[in-house]
Amino acid sequence: MSGIRFCTLILASVMIGLAMMPADAMSSPPVPSSWQTVQLQGISVTVPGTWPVYDLRREPRCVRRDLHAAYLGHQTTETRCPARLVGKSEAVHLEPLDGSVAAASSFATQVNVVNGQRVRLDPAVDVTHNIVVAIDQAQVLLTISFATDRQLATQVLYSLTALATGSHSGAGPVATTSSVQMMVANQLIRAGAPGSVAGAVAGGNGLPGGSTLSPGQSIQSPSGRYTLVMQTDGNLVLYDQGYPLWASNTWGNPGAHADMQGDGNLVVYSAPPTKPLWASGTWGNPGAALSMQNDGNAVIYTNQGQPLWATNTVNSSLLPGQSLTAGRSMVSPSGEFTLPMQADGNLVLYRASDVLWTSNTWGNPGAFATMQSDGNLVVYTAAPSRPLWATGTWGNPGATLRLQSDGNLVIYIDGRPLWASNTNIFRGLGFDTCAAPSTSAMNAWLASPFRAVGIYIGGANRACPDGNLSASWVTQVSAQGWSLIPIYVGRQAPCNSRFTITIDPNSASSQGLQAADDAIARAQGFGIPVGSPIFFDMEGYSPTGGPCSSTVMTFLSAWAQELRAHGIKAGVYSSLDSGIMDLINTPSAQPDEIWFAKWDGNATTTDPAIPANLWPSGHRLKQYQGGHDESYGGVIISIDRDYLDALLR
Predict the structure, then answer these.
(1) What is the pLDDT of residue 28?
(2) CATH architecture of the domain with residue range 194-310
(3) Residue 33 has pLDDT above 50, yes or no
């Protein structure tokens, strides 16, 4: 290669670690005679002659960066890749530069010239072990992955040649992507339709000892806003104007009734032959009574006025015209989440001391939040009032703000969500897989028991390409109702012989920081919702407890600290008997959430090896079954099965 000047743009040492050449020229490394030429849309490169070449336009298959091969064209949307693919080798992929690779193209920000062809390069090559080359004139994206043979990757890059004009068909227009739509969780309380609230009022505002709520009967708060109804399906449910706040979860028992017993115990009994289905556990308090209060709380009091039990549903909603002034709070029905209007003017959603969401309106003492009659939630300054922040949901008179038991703050109109904080805790089944399935496949899998999906967004040991993954994909599957688990598989433990791209013990901290920064950039590029935790995939390693463990913990500590510095929850995936055990024993490296692998078939996040005070409810995931095929809606995907009790976006 000659005639390439080093002005302000340099292709050599900064980008791919080559020694600096004289300032007036750079020579191409010689191409071995045994190599073969591959080309797409007028761009050609040479690759080793022993490599298989796959034209994906004629031979659809999974693009695997863990094997030597050259690929031409896009991986098809319905391609099946093995779930457990990780690791990196030398491979080449030429594909059209269009909307489906918009994220990868956006990372290629450094402009250069290769063999007279103007290109854009991704500067994160040392972190990703991918040389990503965007050739705008030919509308081609070239990705050269490498593990240890950086010289081979360099030779492929320097062989890049533009064929004569007119020798290719060109490419279509670049598609645009839309913004991420909000995700609203399903209600955790299974209750009847709002219309089932109606029924005979049994005892006004309370239920004294020795009285019964029969099917269809209810008690109301003095204001008439809150109703506790014994539904005909056997479920005792507390409603706020048709919205369920609490339930005994005893549905499926038609004819069941609720007794406020003389011993002070509130019990839901089945129809004859009677058996107890649920109880408040307040026996031993003769004369106790149940009261339905104006604050939305149903409370059992002793005959001396001492509270024994409550639904903890106080202040979980804000109706049209109501305000939260400084110092006032909303509380979720579970009592787990609070939404105070802080004295500094910031409206903040907390889970214990963890900040889940904020209006970012601090610095305005005396500010208040109002649920306007037009359906808009607005934070105003103190007098003279001016708006600081709003949900933008005007034009929906009658809309109500609810703080749900799952941690999601939602504005509803007639049961339909208009806006959400997307802070719900996901408790249920999920799966993870190497390559993002197509949107049509994800839609078909709504017939499955899963509602969360783990997707790989990057990392030096990521074996699958972006494929279907894009900002548009994130938007569409989120709108379908899926929660996303972003996964980043970077450098691995130096004692893990499966991998060649491993952590340097002398640079563990800086490499952990670099991985975090790259993961943040990739998540933003794919439109992952702000606030989503990002999980580092640290595959199982051995031995533990020695220098290898120390290196891994140093790396993961830097990973977690850098993510937190950017306001992002840090997660780590690893096997229970290696990475997770080391984290248990290393407080300084502990992330916000863990995802442990233990393939015992038990869908639970509790394990005797993990102390209960570490990563409590809302902070754990478990991979309980390894790679296998499952089919729903006529679509087969290779997956790992997971159970989640975690805060996702």
Answers:
(1) 59
(2) Orthogonal Prism (2.90)
(3) yes
